[in-house]
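To assess whether the prediction recovers the assembly geometry, we first specified each molecular entity separately, as shown.
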Amino acid sequence: MVVSRDGTLSSTEFYVAASAFSEQWRKFNSALRQWSWVPSPKRPWISHNQEEGYLSVENVILPELNEEGHRDGDLIEKEECGCAEEDEFIDAAVLIQNDDAGARQYDFHVVYSACYRVPVLYFRAYCSDGQPLLLDDIKKDLPLNSVEQLTRSRWLFITQEEHPQLNRPWYTLHPCGTSEWMKLLQHNDDSAAQGEGIPVDKYLISWFSVVGQVFGLRIPLEMLNLGGTQ
Amino acid sequence: MVMGDKGGGTEAQQYVWGGAIPLQIHLHDSEVTTLPPPPPALILAPRIGYLPLLVPQIKPFFSSSLPPGVDTVWFEYKGLPLKWYIPTGVLFDLLCAEPERPWNLTIHFRGYPGNILTPCESEDSIKWSFINALKEAAYIINGNCKNIMNMSQPDQAELWRSVLNGQLEVYLRVSSKLKLDIVGDDFSLKLNSSTSKSNQGVNDLDATGTTRTGRVPVRLYIRTIDEDTDDLEDAPAIGSWEKVSYINRPVEVHSEGKCFTLNDALKVLLPELFTEASSTNAHTSGAEVEGGQRSDGDSSRSPGETGAASNEHSQLPSDGAEIKLVRIQGIKPQLEIPFSWVVNNLMNPDHYLHICVYVKVLEPITI
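The predicted structure of the complete assembly is given in tokenized form:
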């Protein structure tokens, strides 16, 4: 079993983690939009194998907050777990729902960064008519505590970067702090106490448990437990 | 970057920092509201700088001709919007197959192509793009970017000003606090024997603070030319950024007694362009490397780790692809040159080595 000890992955390990993540997502979130692997475009003089590429889920409608702070139609299980990060997100402040807003859709891509040796979330959002959303409008979609955290944190913030595969501007959660908080997650894990890092095929579950929360997307408890205990 | 008593840096660094490209900048026809149209602006642009930094110099030439509206400045070369976050010298090396002097660019003050270029709202956008690249480089070299994150505001401002004003000496003094030294191999240390003592001193300090990764920040820009183009002068202009491949991948240097050359670095980044059998390629000229013929059949997959790439090769999809030209800071270096020398002397202020590679392929690329 290959493990990540310092919060980072090689690109081969990223492919393994991405395959495992999309399989687990399909198993536990079959009613939601599914992740798929998008291989890099082929260049005759650059190595082409299926391990080069990125993980993609598109046309996602974020769970909406109603006045009670619960999510309508949210198929993700709401059971509380002992994780401190979970507690922080569950106590979200109430947001007034804007019923006039049309459904906004999000594309999420998980791309490997060879520089930081971690996955990076690239995203963009658009209205039902295809008009792209600006960052200020995106922030209105996010849970209030996410916006606060993005403002305060030096390690979790949004920048606009060029998508490495698509050569277009996309928003991204900047990866410079990822390996540090992945190490923290590993230390919080029981199995990490035994000196082992997190198994590579569980890496993206842990990673998404932080990154997905920014958008109000939570991982079901079974999937999280699978990441934690095995 | 070479640190130490020579405050002004190496001779090569001084040439790099003093490097400039003559630009002849034309206002786009759609934005000309006067007759006759304004004459082009002649500007000398620092290689290590960024195009939007030139706007304060350029604007006075054209302001009386502009239509009403808010400025959103962007540059274009033969129809290709120019990515402002790529240093000017790299854009020139990549887009002008045969150096064009002066380099004729078109400037727009309206109609920013936001679907192609990330926004550039002010000098601060450029500064933060630069700082982000520096953080990335720091992470590659040290395994974290804490020295950048913890830079004081005055130091940050002074570092950026040194880039704006092309002040190598100030840059070296401020950036030495970031401890972004790339470990040289023995060959490099011998060449720089006069600084070896201070290098050891720096390493002593680093022993408590950070871990050397042995990785070098490299950004590779690859364009293809077809087989029939014998003269680079005849290479067609690049009409879209899809025609350029950009590889942002560090090079892991193995100091195993043998000198790690620029050729070795390119093998790590573009293993398919080098023959499987030979570790030392015969060269018809210093700047050209023959791809050679390879038999089809089972070959090991290309690994994800760049460090291991030198030991394995994937099957070459298109026989006969070869490196036609390598350009760094406007020069065509001999590929046998020690990579550590190239890095320490030809690096940009963002602590990246930007390499432009022209690859000759048998068929025109249709993407």
